[in-house]
Hints:
Blueprint (H helix, E strand, L loop, with lengths): L1 E8 L9 E5 L15 E5 L5 E5 L12 E7 L6 E6 L19 E5 L2 E10 L2
Amino acid sequence: MLLHGTVCTREGKPIAGALLDFWQVGEAGVYDDDGFRLRGHQFADAEGRWRLETVLPAVYPGRTRHVHVKVQPPGGSVLTTMLYFPGERRNHLDKYFRTECLMDVRETAEGWDAEFTFVLDV
């Protein structure tokens, strides 16, 4: 799965250097609590763009499919959230699900392509 997007202000100005920290379950639906598999961070580029190649997270008991993310502009506050997949049958059952955190997702010949724009108050 390719997960990508931008970080910007409410006015649409890119936030260069924003820190993005990701973690998720793997294909078996479990978190790696002993190592660092499917966990990591990166910084947005000068245009606020970010790009992560990962696996499609599995659905596991009690939750819908999602990816955890923390986003922090340089010198700013941390936003902790989750990104969700549209059309998942368990979305409405997940107590943490928020429609504003739905990614724009499409299936391509290369795999899943998911896009999201983080809009931060800075």
